[in-house]
Amino acid sequence: MKLFHLTPAACLFLIGCSTASEVQPLSSTDEDPINRARVEGYVFQPERIDATDARVAELSVPDGFTIGKFAEDMGKPRMLAVREDGTVYVTRRGGDIYMLRDTDGDGKADSREQVFEMKNIHGLELRGDELYMVAVNEVLKTRLQSDGTFGPIDTVATKFPEGGQHNNRTLAFGPDDKLYVSVGSTCNACAETNDENATLVQMNADGSERKIFAKGLRNTIGFDWHPETGVLYGLDHGIDWLGDDAQKEELNMLEEGKHYGWPYIYGDGHYNPADEPEEGFDAFEKKVTDPVMTYTAHSAPLDMIFYRGDQFPLTYRNDAIVTMRGSWNRSEPSGYKIVRIEFDDNGKPVAFHDFATGWLRNNDQQQMGRLVGLAEMPDGSLLATDDTNGVIYRIAYGKSSR
C-alpha cells in the first residue's frame, strides 16, 4: 500500500473523492509548535452485497432471539416511529415517509403507502396522535388521521442552520415534555459560525423557548432517556482522519449547559491535532465534560433507544440498543452491527455487547447492510432499518420472525 502524506485539509477533500474498494492510507506529518500528533486516515468500504434470505438466515442474535425481514425493497429507509396500534412510519433518504402495517400479525409488513414527501425529511417522533418530523432547517408536525394518513402540516420551528456534512436531524420528546433536536456539525472538525451547529437544541412542543441545551456534539443522531433515572444519554460520532483507533465513538451523559469537547477535545482529554481553540487547549479543556464510555472508532452510531418492552428477557429491560452503521475511514471495518449497552441496577452504563451481527461477510470484505433507525413495536419486538439494501429487520424473542 502506498502512503500519502497530506495535510488534514487535503484529507477532508478526499472524503468526497474516493470510491476505492481497497484500503487507501492517508496521513500528514505536518508539525506545528505544539507538535501534538500524527494525523492519519484510511478509506475502506466493504463491497455491498444483497441481503438474500439465505444470508439473512445466517445473521447472529443471542439464544432465543430471531431476526428476519419485516419489509424489503424499501429504497433507503432511515428513521422510524411506531404507533400504539403497530402502524410503522419510516423516512427514506429520497425524501419521503412511508406507512407500513402488519395486518395479519406474522411479523412482516403486508401493506405500505407513501404518506408524505419532503426533501431531507429525516427524524420522526410521536406525541399522542401527532407526528413530529424534522428536516435540515425546520420541524413540522401533523395530526394523524384515523386511517394513519397525514392531516394538515404545521410548522413548529424554522431557521435551523444548514447541514453541511451532517444534515440528518433527529428529534425526541423528553420526560419533561420538551422537544429536543439534534443539530450536527457542518464539517469534520472546525469552528462553527452558527451557534446551533454541533448542539442539542431544546424547545417547547410549539417551538417556543428554543435554546441550546448542550454543545460540542459533532453528530449525536441517537439519544434517549433512561426509563427509570430519566438521565439523557447520546452517542456522538467521532472525528475522522485521526487514525484507525481515534476518535472513538462517545457515549455522553447529556446535561444542560455542558460542552462535550468537539472539535478540540475528545475522549478523556485528548487534543485534536488538527485544530486548536483560541484560548488554548488547557483553558478549553476545563469546560469540557468527558464521555461516560467509548466505543470502537469510526463505527458510526446512528440510532439509540432504551428497551422498555417486556418481550425480551428481563436482563434487557432498561438497556440501550444501538445501530452501528459502519466505518469508511478505517483500514479494518468497524460497526455494521447492532449493539446493546448494559446498564446496572443504578442506571449506570457498564458495558457494550454485540446484539445482532453478521452483516459483515467474507472476512469483512463485503457487507450486506448498514443499520440506521430503531423502534420498539407494541409487542416488544424491535425494528431496525438498513439504508443500503432497503430492508427493515424485525428482532423478536421467543417467536419466529424468519
Q: Characteristics of this structure?
A:
single chain; 402 residues; mainly beta; 39% strand; Quinoprot_gluc/sorb_DH_b-prop; signal; Glucose/arabinose dehydrogenase; 6-blade_b-propeller_TolB-like
Structure description:
This protein has 402 residues and is mainly beta. It has one domain: Neuraminidase (6 Propeller). Helix content is 4%, strand content 39%. The chain is built from three helices and 32 strands. The strands form nine sheets. A four-stranded antiparallel β-sheet has the order 5-32-31-30, with no helix packed on it. Strands 6-7-8-9 form a four-stranded antiparallel β-sheet, with no helix packed on it. A hairpin with a 5-residue loop joins strand 6 (77-82) and strand 7. Residues 1-37 have low confidence and may be disordered.
